């Protein structure tokens, strides 16, 4: 009976591509589940969790000076990096028609800020320059694509009306750039928020930002102090509108350079050594091409591919879990379903999406012990919160008939069928982000590409680190190309 | 008089559809031509063809105006003559309006009933005000030929007539697409009727009257 119904089911599914893609991802994730280590390695995580909750509820600031310093450094990195990235992004966007520029940008932005940080650290050490470049370099490539799209979208009419034939900087300035400015400014604001988060995260690789203090407070079990830092981080993000209001922006951009931590003097002799020697495997340095090929082949088969496979598996499982979580989370914040409890639901979603995956995963790792479980949960929860928030907002805009069903029936019959296609498209877009982040979670000890990259750096095996970063970038580029083709609609600038 | 534009049997296709077919049209310096015809008759396409041929000789006021909403009224008008100054001067002017063009622009704006509005972002203006800004920009360009695509459609008849006269005074030659027969008869010396992408008539204004134009619109499926 079931066997007979199955082909029919598949045939009907073929007519509903969104549902088919969703169920397909879910099935794939379930198949991959046994390949991951999802055990809880800690005997009894609950007392620890209780201590953590107490720390968050009753935060303490040990030293205000230290907190203030960390906050200012975090802001300074973002304010120093974003203007440079924006200017470089505009320049690259103008040359974006050249395929070489497009490819360069695709490769540069496929490498996560943290990996850029680890790379620059080998050259500049733990310096301000490392942090600024780690944010500015990938962001320039991101700006390039977004600005190129934005410029292309602008109406050609103003240019035509003033007789601008596509050449001449003045005409471009008034007819294209000025038109694009409101959208560009909104995107800059959004990117700046991302830069603040990135700057915080860079603390986990040793730069003196909020993340650095967070990591040590959590590791030493000072949960109240960690709570204080986390609340400071939330307030920092929530208050952007106030402390980074437009008139203050130029001032911050200048002040940032004073606020950055001091840098050790740069030794230019190291640069040549680094690029000419350190980054390449021994056979390549000696000009033994076949040996180099063998070396890269062995790295690819023994390290890169297994790690890439696991990174993909973690990302896919996290994506499926995120999809399921969205279904459960969005009604909590929807006024029609949750009614008076909707504000509480919104607060929960805000809390979950404001906390970067890395911090969530870090806390979960402390609580649950080292397995893939913390990574999967952190990635799923953070991304589900972002998509659920957008879906809840959409749900409140749905026109409902007066005699619409209530509560669970409303959710099942009226809302989810209408909201899911867009939520699925957003999730498909988020998959890129999940993949990038899951690679990064390796620096916390989760078995993904990032773990191998981090250890390679720690063991000073730079050729391996560079090769693995390249593999990660290639994986990201490939997945981006696939999801672009699959995603029904591109989910604009949703979330970080 | 010098011939500015001449086309015989002009055809323009958009995909499968012929937007203009077999149009013969010549424009001499000093002529003031009104283009009439129902929506979709091909007026905008003919204006675009003229603009492509005349290039820098013409100041264009497109139907969708082509204003930059994020910029102020002043900047939208100033844009008409960017080539007069260097890039750096133009960049500076974007943040700190230069005194000389500012005086010129504000005087022009006053003539078009926009005195004291030069700082306002164009995005906040009403439809009629936006149309007047686009007319100011065209006049500020100081070109011999004015090409307008329903440039006064959002203004009340009286104001529309007055402003159209002002625009025509500033240009020796003009081709303007219109829907208002009275305006076409009063302000222009030649009227060209388009219907379904073909030339319906091309006569001096003195040889036509309101009844003829009203019938022309009625025949072609209703007056807009």
Overview of the structural elements:
The complex is a heterodimer of chains A (496) and B (224). Chain A is built from 23 helices and no strands. In chain A, α3 crosses α11. By secondary structure, chain A is mainly alpha-helical. The longest helix of chain A is centred in the middle third of the chain and has 45 residues. By secondary structure, chain B is an alpha/beta fold. In chain B, 38% of the residues lie in helices and 25% in strands. Chain B contains eight helices and eight strands. The longest helix of chain B is centred in the middle third of the chain and has 14 residues. The mean pLDDT of chain B is 89. Chains A and B meet through α8 and α9 of A and α3 and α5 of B.
Number of helices of chain A: 23
Structural class of chain B: alpha/beta
Task: Please identify the top-level CATH class of chain B.
Answer: Alpha Beta
User: What would you call the structural class of chain A?
Assistant: mainly alpha
Oligomer: heterodimer
Low-confidence residue ranges of chain A: 488-496
Quote the beta fraction of chain A: under 5%
Q: Estimate the global geometry of chain A from the Cα principal axes.
A: globular
**How many domains of chain B?**
1
The share of residues in helices of chain A is over 70%
* Number of beta strands of chain B: 8
Average of pLDDT of chain B: 89
Strand content of chain B: 25-35%
Helix content of chain B: 25-40%
Cα distance spanning the termini of chain A: 47 Å
Q: In what order do the strands lie side by side in the largest sheet of chain B?
A: 4-5-6-3-7-8
H and E order of chain B? EEEHEHHHHEHEHEEH
Radius of gyration of chain A: 24 Å
Biggest β-sheet description of chain B = 6 strands, mixed
- Can you give the mean pLDDT of chain A? 87
Low-confidence stretches of chain B: none
Describe the secondary structure blueprint for this structure.
The complex is a heterodimer of chains A (496) and B (224).
Chain A: H1 2-14, H2 17-32, H3 45-57, H4 64-94, H5 99-110, H6 113-124, H7 128-153, H8 157-161, H9 169-201, H10 210-219, H11 223-238, H12 240-243, H13 249-259, H14 268-278, H15 282-285, H16 289-333, H17 335-338, H18 342-354, H19 357-368, H20 372-397, H21 407-440, H22 449-458, H23 462-486
Chain B: E1 3-14, E2 17-28, E3 32-36, H1 43-54, E4 58-61, H2 73-78, H3 87-95, H4 99-111, H5 127-140, E5 145-149, H6 157-169, E6 173-177, H7 181-187, E7 190-195, E8 198-204, H8 210-219
């Amino acid at each position: 009976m079931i066997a007979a119904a199955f082909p029919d089911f598949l045939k009907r599914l073929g007519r509903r591509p969104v549902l088919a893609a969703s169920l397909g991802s879910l099935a794939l994730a379930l198949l991959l589940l046994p390949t991951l280590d999802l055990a809880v390695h800690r005997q009894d995580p609950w007392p620890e969790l209780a201590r953590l909750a107490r720390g968050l509820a009753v935060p303490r600031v040990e030293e205000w000076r230290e907190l203030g310093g960390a906050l200012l450094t975090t802001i300074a990195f973002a304010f120093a990096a974003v203007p440079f990235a924006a200017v470089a992004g505009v320049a690259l966007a103008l040359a974006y028609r050249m395929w070489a520029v497009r490819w360069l940008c695709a490769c540069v932005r496929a490498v996560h800020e943290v990996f850029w940080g680890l790379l620059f650290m080998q050259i500049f050490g733990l310096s301000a320059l490392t942090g600024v470049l780690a944010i500015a370099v990938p962001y320039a490539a991101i700006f390039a694509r977004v600005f190129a799209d934005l410029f292309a979208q602008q109406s050609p009419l103003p240019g035509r009306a003033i007789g601008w034939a596509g050449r001449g900087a003045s005409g471009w300035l008034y007819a294209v750039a000025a038109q694009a400015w409101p959208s560009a400014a909104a995107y800059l604001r959004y990117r700046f928020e991302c830069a603040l988060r990135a700057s915080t995260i860079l603390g986990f690789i040793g730069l003196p930002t909020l993340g650095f203090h967070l990591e040590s407070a959590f590791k030493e079990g000072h949960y109240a102090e960690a709570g204080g830092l986390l609340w400071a981080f939330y307030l920092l993000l929530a208050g952007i509108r106030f402390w980074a209001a437009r008139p203050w922006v130029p001032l911050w951009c200048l002040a940032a350079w004073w606020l950055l931590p001091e840098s050790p003097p740069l030794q230019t002799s190291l640069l040549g050594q680094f690029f000419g020697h350190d980054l390449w495997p021994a056979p390549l340095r000696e000009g033994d091409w076949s040996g180099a090929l063998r070396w890269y082949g062995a790295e690819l088969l023994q390290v890169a591919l297994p790690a890439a496979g696991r990174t993909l598996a973690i990302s896919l499982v996290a994506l499926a879990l995120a999809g399921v979580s969205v279904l459960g989370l969005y009604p909590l914040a929807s006024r029609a379903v949750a009614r008076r409890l909707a504000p509480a639901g919104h607060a929960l979603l805000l809390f979950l999406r404001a906390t970067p995956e890395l911090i969530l995963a870090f806390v979960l790792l402390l609580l649950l012990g080292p397995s893939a479980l913390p990574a999967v949960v952190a990635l799923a929860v953070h991304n589900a919160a972002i998509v659920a928030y957008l879906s809840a907002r959409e749900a409140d805009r749905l026109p409902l008939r007066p005699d619409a069903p209530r509560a669970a029936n409303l959710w099942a019959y009226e809302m989810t069928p209408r909201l899911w296609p867009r939520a699925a498209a957003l999730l498909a877009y988020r998959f890129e982000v999940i993949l990038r982040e899951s690679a990064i979670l390796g620096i916390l000890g989760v078995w993904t590409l990032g773990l191998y990259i981090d250890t390679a750096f720690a063991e000073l095996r730079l050729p391996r680190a560079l090769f693995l970063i390249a593999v990660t970038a290639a994986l990201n580029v490939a997945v981006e190309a696939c999801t672009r083709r699959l995603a029904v609609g591109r989910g604009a600038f949703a979330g970080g | 008089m010098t011939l500015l534009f001449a086309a015989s049997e002009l055809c323009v296709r958009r995909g499968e559809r012929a937007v203009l077919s077999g149009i013969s049209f010549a424009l001499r310096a000093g002529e003031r031509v009104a283009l009439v015809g129902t929506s979709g008759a091909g007026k905008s396409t003919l204006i675009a063809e003229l603009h492509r041929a005349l290039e820098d000789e013409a100041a264009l006021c497109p139907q969708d105006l082509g204003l930059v909403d994020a910029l102020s009224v002043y900047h939208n008008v100033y844009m008409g003559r960017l080539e007069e100054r260097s890039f750096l001067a133009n960049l500076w002017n974007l943040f700190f309006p230069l005194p000389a063009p500012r005086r010129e622009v504000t005087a022009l704006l006053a003539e078009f009933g926009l005195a004291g509005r030069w700082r306002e972002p164009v995005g906040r203006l009403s439809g009629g005000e936006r149309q007047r800004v686009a007319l100011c920009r065209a006049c500020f360009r100081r070109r011999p030929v004015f090409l307008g695509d329903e440039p006064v459609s959002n203004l009340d008849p009286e104001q529309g007539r007055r402003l159209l006269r002002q625009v025509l005074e500033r240009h020796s030659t003009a081709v303007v697409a219109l829907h208002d027969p009275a305006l076409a008869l009063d302000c222009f010396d030649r009227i060209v009727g388009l219907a379904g992408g073909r030339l319906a008539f091309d006569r001096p204004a003195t040889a036509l009257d309101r009844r003829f134009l009203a019938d022309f619109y009625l025949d072609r499926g209703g007056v807009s």
